[in-house]
Amino acid sequence: MWRDKSKITHLIIHCAATPNGRHFTAEDIDRWHKERGFRRDPADIGHHEPRLRHIGYHYVIYTNGAVRNGRSESEVGAHCQGMNTVSIGVCLIGTDRFTRHQWESLRAHVQAIQKRHPGIQICGHRQFAKKICPGFDVPAWLGGEMEPLANHLCDIQLERS
User: Fold this and answer.
1) Which of 34, 8, 149, 35 has the alpha carbon at shortest distance from 92?
2) Distance CA 107, CA 121 (A)
3) Closest to 145 measured CA to CA, from 99, 107, 115
4) What is the secondary structure of 118-156 as a DSSP string?
5) Strand partners, 121
6) Is omega for the bond preceding 134 within 30 degrees of 0, making it cis?
7) Separation CA 32–CA 37 (nearest Å)
8) Which residues contact 36 (CB under 8 A, 6 or more apart)?
């Protein structure tokens, strides 16, 4: 289902609940979402990531900091029950420890979304559901000027692609 971008009020940060520091892809998430019964409306897909037919997120941030598109921002997501029609979903690969590249990409990506959607509220999935997702406190991260949270750093060294 398509939506008017002016209706977007929230950006919701998620984690993939995968082992910290291990590489997973949007295709992996697409497969997991298919197994859970998620499905993008074929009429909505068009040319926007047509091979990802089930992914619920709009963006996925890999351990090397690369940002992969999922759904279009104009497409209603499937990532936070009760909030999908008014939100953008961003998912970090990992659970509660993220690489410096991921933290840098998350900050830059959130700031870019804030420019496109002035006044958007930045939240963690756990603020809407009884989950640990993401594995860090989003309000604390925002209050720390979007700097990496020390107790949530994954210390693996990666090359950025």
Assistant:
1) 149
2) 14
3) 107
4) TTPEEEEGGGTSSS--SSS-HHHHHHTTTPPPGGGB---
5) 10
6) yes
7) 9
8) none
Tokens of 95: 């659970």
Give Cβ neighbours of residue 133 (< 8 Å, ≥ 6 apart): 14, 15, 17, 124, 125, 126
Tokens, residue 157: 């060294």
- Separation CA 12–CA 62 (nearest Å): 17
Each residue's pLDDT, cut to its tens digit, for the chain (161 residues) gives 667 778 899 999 999 999 999 999 999 999 999 999 999 988 888 788 999 999 999 999 999 999 999 999 999 999 999 999 999 999 999 999 999 999 999 999 999 999 999 999 999 999 999 999 999 999 999 999 999 998 999 977 554 44
Q: Which domains does the chain have, with CATH numbers?
A: 5-152 (3.40.80.10)
